[in-house]
Amino acid sequence: MSGTPDTDVVVAGGGPVGLQLAYELGLAGVRVTVLEREPDRPPHARAWGLHARTVETLDRRGLLDGVLDERARWPKMPFAGLWPLLDLTALRSDHPYLANLPQSTLEELLEDRVRGQGTEVRRGHELVGLADDGDGVTVTVRAGGGAYRLRGRFLVGCDGGRSTVRGLAGIDFPGTDPTVAAMLCDCTLPTMADERRGITRTETGTVNINPRPTGVVRVVVTEYHRTHADRDAPVDVDEFRASVRRVLGRDLAITEPRWLTRFSDTTRQADRYRQGRVLLAGDAAHVHFPYGGLGLNLGLQDAVNLGWKLAAAVAGWAPAGLLDSYQAERHPVAAWTLEHSRAQLALFKPDPDVTALRALFADLLALPDLNRHLAELITGVATRYPLGGEDPHHPAVGGFAPDLRVKTIDGPTGLARLMRTGRGLLLDMTGGSAFIGASAAWSGRVDVIPALPDQPPPYGAVLVRPDGYVAWAAPPVADVTNGRDAAALRTALVTWFGPPASG
Ligand SMILES: Cc1cc2nc3c(=O)[nH]c(=O)nc-3n(C[C@H](O)[C@H](O)[C@H](O)COP(=O)(O)OP(=O)(O)OC[C@H]3O[C@@H](n4cnc5c(N)ncnc54)[C@H](O)[C@@H]3O)c2cc1C
User: Fold this and answer.
1) How far is CA 458 from CA 354, 405, 473, in A?
2) Inter-residue contact 338 to 52 (CB < 8 Å)
3) Is residue 187 within 8 Å of 216, Cβ to Cβ?
4) 283 alpha carbon to ligand 1 midpoint, in Å?
5) pLDDT one digit per residue (tens) for the chain, 503 residues
6) 37, 40, 186, 287: which to mutate for ligand 1, most atoms within 8 A of CB?
7) Which domains does the chain have, with CATH numbers?
8) What contacts 478, CB < 8 A, 6 or more positions away?
9) Which residue windows are coiled coil (predicted)?
């Protein structure tokens, strides 16, 4: 089937990443259809934490307004179960904390926003086939005992670690097989007051006990010398208890098990994120052990990186290479994350050599600069993209734009709030009009806003991509009107927002 598309983008998978991507596309006015295999959203939450860069990113969409109170902002987080903890208050971030938000709450919030944009989220609809003919992608969908076809200009597989889209598109998923057997149980633990919180490491594995603010206790057991015979077999509470007993050498008084599941340290990454008109994001593109709490964060940032680029391709103004910059920017970040989760898992291995390494790491974590360095890597705050090539023109280029407080013609506001449109932003704080005039031809794709900063800003003017990263900046005050800055601005506008609109 070819011909007129039914929709611009088919998103396979209505998990957090698919919904975030749908939201980004919806902001740009792209027609999206989300296909979700499950008829209902799962009641349990896999992830519970959003790292600083994710919070910064979602804040630039207003998605967390009124969601996080002070109790949900944790100033510290563990690294490999070592002491001292990572001090998040030292992060160079607008949001220096770990946000305690269940994945299920985030999914609900995103689905409400997406439906509010008029996007169709088809629950109980499973993608089972695809054909990319170069002009569009026709997918086969199984639903309600029958099947139908749906044609989009692009398809994005946000359908999780065992992605059907990835398989059908012929994208390889190289990596390593499981070496450990892990299980999770959300339960009531009447002895919680007497239990050691956090991770206990023994000669066979680890047990992690974490009481949640809801009163439910999450217990995770990991055994190092075995793997699951059947990764899909349901977990019986007796199997879980037995595993805990093998690791702890005693029983845990688990009652009221609410959710039991098994997982492993399978670590894989798609060898490419794009095949023609088919793209991958989130767990469909990368899987790893959940130590560090990185998977959800990684996937949400994939979605925000990809959304505006795909919207530009749909709208027809995407400059050459824009869509491929998604893989160029995000593949290395995921590759690092996979290595990081391996490193954390290795630091728990029951082995005397590892015990010695742990002592060394604990010493290093006590050094404030090192502690912050590691925290900035894990929380994504250290993430930069090589946006300016070899000569980035200004040191801010490639980094994430902080939430500068400014006054505009509409009153006091901040850079984060100005980014809620999901468009590019040119914020000119020079008091002149040179940069405003130079960017006028892009005003359909970039919000061009003159402003007065509350504090001396790190730059006189800044061009921010919709994902929050700086594409161009001019130094503050003195030499703002020189021709080199204006020429670099034009280059950045053409690179990221296409040729100037005519007329
Ligand atoms: C035990 C555990 C704990 C975790 N803890 C954390 C943590 O603390 N922090 C963190 O950041 N990450 C954590 N993660 C990882 C995190 O949960 C995932 O990275 C995240 O869910 C990925 O989101 P996603 O949307 O890419 O995929 P998923 O959440 O897997 O969503 C994919 C969706 O696609 C649907 N689907 C699948 N196939 C099809 C199809 N053919 N057609 C239509 N729909 C389909 C599925 O039903 C599902 O709804 C944890 C993971 C596990 C297993």
Assistant:
1) 44, 12, 9
2) no
3) yes
4) 6
5) 568 999 999 999 999 999 999 999 999 999 999 999 999 999 999 999 999 999 999 999 999 999 998 899 999 999 999 999 999 999 999 999 999 999 999 999 999 999 999 999 999 999 999 999 999 999 999 999 999 999 999 999 999 999 999 999 999 999 999 999 999 999 999 999 999 999 999 999 999 999 998 889 999 999 998 999 999 999 999 999 999 999 999 999 999 999 999 999 999 999 999 999 999 999 999 999 999 899 999 999 999 999 999 999 999 999 999 999 999 999 999 999 999 999 999 999 999 999 999 999 999 999 999 999 999 999 999 999 999 766 667 899 999 999 999 999 999 999 999 999 999 999 999 988 889 988 999 999 999 999 999 999 999 999 999 999 999 999 886 555 567 888 899 999 999 999 998 75
6) 37
7) 7-48+102-176+268-341 (3.50.50.60), 181-265 (3.30.70.2450), 405-497 (3.40.30.120)
8) none
9) none
Ligand 1 lining (C-beta closer than 6 Å) = 12-18, 35-38, 46-49, 103, 126-127, 158-160, 164, 184, 263, 282-283, 290, 293-297, 299
The minimum-distance atom of ligand 1 relative to the CA of 161 is 30
By alpha-carbon position, which residue is closest to atom 6 of ligand 1?
A: 47
Pair of tokens at residue 121 = 């989220």
Sequential DSSP letters for 396-457: TTTSBPP--EEEETTEEEEHHHHTTTSSEEEEE-SSSSHHHHHTGGGTTTEEEEE-EESS--
Q: How far is the CA of 162 from the centre of ligand 1 (A)?
A: 10
Atom of ligand 1 nearest to the CA of 165: 41
Say which DSSP state 30 is in. Answer: -
Choosing from 51, 54, 262, 283 the residue with most ligand 1 atoms within 8 A of its CB, the one to mutate for a pocket test is: 283
